[in-house]
Every structure is written in structure tokens, then in C-alpha cells.
Write a structure and sequence with these properties.
With 325 residues, this protein is α/β, with parallel strands linked by helices. It has 2 domains: 139 residues, 3-Layer(aba) Sandwich (D-Maltodextrin-Binding Protein, domain 2), CATH 3.40.190; 134 residues, D-Maltodextrin-Binding Protein, domain 2, CATH 3.40.190.10. Helices cover 35% and strands 20% of the residues. The protein contains 13 helices and 14 strands. The strands form 3 sheets. A 6-stranded mixed β-sheet has the order 1-3-2-4-14-5. Helix 2 packs across helix 11 and helix 11 runs antiparallel to helix 13. The longest helix is centred in the last third of the chain and has 19 residues. It is elongated, with a radius of gyration of 20 Å. It starts with 18 loop residues before the first helix and ends with a helix. The N terminus is likely disordered.
Length: 325
């Protein structure tokens, strides 16, 4: 059975073993004979964080459910920063989905609560800029043009970017400030000295961005490639020119490194302390093993390499040994 909740409002009095059971994606799965650890009925793994990483975790969680019927996996979309700040570093979840690396302030918060985050890479994404299919005047944007559009006090109308484009105001949709996608877009496109504009529709719900862009000829948005790949006929992906010509976002261009600067790694962070729980150990091992397979590409991302998988599994086993010794 599977249910979804993309809200982040959860009562602080609820324990981390319970809060996502009622407010997440509940995945029931069967116990695999290949595991050396026998998980008991009622065990649970609690996950919050990035909406970008959510499709990967959901797909792998569904596969996990087929082998581990006694373990419940609950997932909530809270944004990377919301997941770290409100749940993971507060000791209320076992794993945080993250579309960027954990920040120093978040590491400090985790440390104050005796939470040790273990970083594991699960995929590569091609962050995608999208417009309405009827916006036939734009198929490619330079990074500088993107910066003009999305910076505070920047361009207001399409014609501000190109005199031949419509004299119409932008209708902009993008990631909320709690999102790792927001942070990555800021870093890759705007840079340290430029602020992201605030007069746009900010949301953690990527499907809201799809709906908004689909509904207006002058709209633009950005999100993870997976959400574009689900809707290629209702929105149009814009190629990006980083100085070497226009490159379309795709699994292939992200894998080859051609799609710059918007290719990015995706992560999960597992609390080292949670690895003392058999269910969390089983799920995390399963996740990293499957992150190098077609399960990841099927949801629109690039799987990790076998070398990276083995590197992360080694780090994971070292952490497990330390907490179970």
C-alpha cells in the first residue's frame, strides 16, 4: 500500500519512529533472504527531504517493498533544507533525501543533537529549465541570460532579454527557498554575489511548476529532469549554452558531462546512529546497490557507477560496524 504526503507540517511531539507512518509514502515490503539481518514485523524507516530525489527513493522503496514485507518505509517531500532542519538533524528521521550537499550549519545542528550524517550518492540529475510549448521564440538560453531572468532586480519582460521576443512580463515558477534545487540553481547560475529574485511562484511541488508553465505562454520554470521527462508533450525543455553551444538536458548529456552547469549529484544522508536499527541497515544497503541500476534511469536520472556504488557500500559497512560492534 502506498500513500503520499508532500507537506512538511508535522507535530514536534511525534516521535521519529511514528511521524511519517501517517504522513508519508508508506511502502510495505517483503523480507529478502539475501540479507544477513532479520528485520522484525513493524520495523520502519523514516525519510524526508528533497522532492527531486523523491522519485528515486520512491522507485527503490517500491522495489524494496517486494522483498521486505515487514518493513514500512515512509517518505515525505519537505525540501532538502526543510528535511535537514526540521526532521533529520532533529533526530526525527533516519534518512534525508538531498539535491545538494549538507551545509555546515546543518552539520552543526546535527552534531548538537548527536546525529552523524553519512553521505551517499544515489544519482546524477540534469536540472531543467522549461517553458510553454507555444513559446516558439526560445529554444536555448545562455547562462548569462538565465542570470538576467532569475536575479533580483533583473529582467522583467521577455523583450528585456532579446528585442525580438515578446514585450510580455515573465511568469516564473521555481523551487522554494527550503529546496536543494533552489540552492543549486543559485550556486550554478547566479553565483555568490547575486540574489535570486523573490517575485516568482515558489513551491516544493514540482507538478505545480508543470501546471503553471503549461498554462501560460510566457511562463518559465526549473526543476529536476525527472519531472520534465514525465511531461515532454505539455512543457518544453530549454537547451543551455555555457559557452560551448546549446546543449539539451538529458540523461545522456548529464552522464557525458556536456550539460553544464546544471548537471548535479543527488544524495541521501543516513544517520549513523539509525544504522543500529536492522530495518535502516537493510534499506540503505538495498538502496545503494540499486542506485547503480536501471531503476534510477527509469525515473529520469543517471545511475551511479559501479565504482561509486562499491565506494559508498564500503563507507556504509564501516559505519554499520562502528554502531553495531
Amino acid at each position: 500500500m502506498m500513500s503520499r504526503d508532500s507537506t512538511a507540517s508535522l507535530p514536534t511531539a511525534v516521535g521519529r519512529r511514528d511521524f511519517l507512518a501517517a504522513a508519508g509514502v508508506a511502502l510495505s515490503g517483503s523480507l529478502a533472504g539475501c540479507s544477513s539481518i532479520l528485520a522484525t514485523e513493524g520495523d520502519q524507516v523514516n525519510i524526508a527531504g528533497s522532492s527531486t530525489v523523491f522519485p528515486v527513493t520512491e522507485a527503490i522503496g517500491s522495489a524494496f517493498s517486494e522483498e521486505y514485507p515487514t518493513i514500512n518505509v515512509s517518505i515525505s517531500q519537505t525540501g532538502t533544507g526543510g528535511g535537514f532542519g526540521n526532521f533529520f538533524c532533529a533526530g526525527r528521521t533516519d534518512i534525508n533525501n538531498a539535491s545538494r550537499e549538507i551545509a555546515d550549519a546543518e552539520i552543526e545542528q546535527c552534531g548538537k543533537n548527536s546525529i552523524t550524517p553519512i553521505e551517499l550518492t544515489v544519482a546524477t540529475d540534469a536540472l531543467t529549465v522549461v517553458v510553454n510549448p507555444d513559446a516558439d521564440w526560445v529554444d536555448c538560453l545562455t547562462v548569462e541570460q538565465l542570470r538576467e531572468i532569475w536575479s533580483a532586480d533583473g529582467a522583467e519582460r521577455w523583450s528585456d532579454i532579446n528585442d525580438d521576443w515578446p514585450d510580455e512580463e515573465f511568469e516564473l515558477y521555481g523551487a522554494a527557498t527550503t529546496s536543494g534545487t533552489f540552492d543549486y540553481f543559485n550556486e550554478a547560475v547566479l553565483g555568490e554575489d547575486v540574489n535570486h529574485r523573490s517575485d516568482y511562484y515558489a513551491t516544493e511541488r514540482d507538478r505545480t511548476i508543470v501546471q503553471g508553465v503549461r498554462g501560460s505562454e510566457v511562463a518559465m520554470g526549473y526543476f529536476g529532469f525527472s519531472f520534465y521527462s514525465e511531461n515532454p508533450n505539455s512543457i518544453k525543455a530549454v537547451s543551455i549554452d555555457d559557452g560551448n553551444g546549446c546543449v539539451e538536458p538529458s540523461i545522456e548529456t548529464a552522464m557525458s558531462g556536456e550539460y553544464t552547469p546544471l548537471s548535479r549529484p543527488l544524495f541521501i544522508y543516513v544517520a549513523k546512529e539509525s544504522l543500529a536499527e536492522p530495518a535502516v541497515r537493510d534499506f540503505t544497503r538495498f538502496y545503494i546497490e540499486r542506485a547503480a541500476t536501471d531503476l534510477v534511469s527509469e525515473v529520469g536520472y543517471v545511475p551511479i557507477t559501479e565504482e561509486k556504488r562499491d565506494e559508498d557500500l564500503e563507507r556504509l559497512e564501516e559505519a554499520i560496524e562502528e554502531v553495531t560492534a
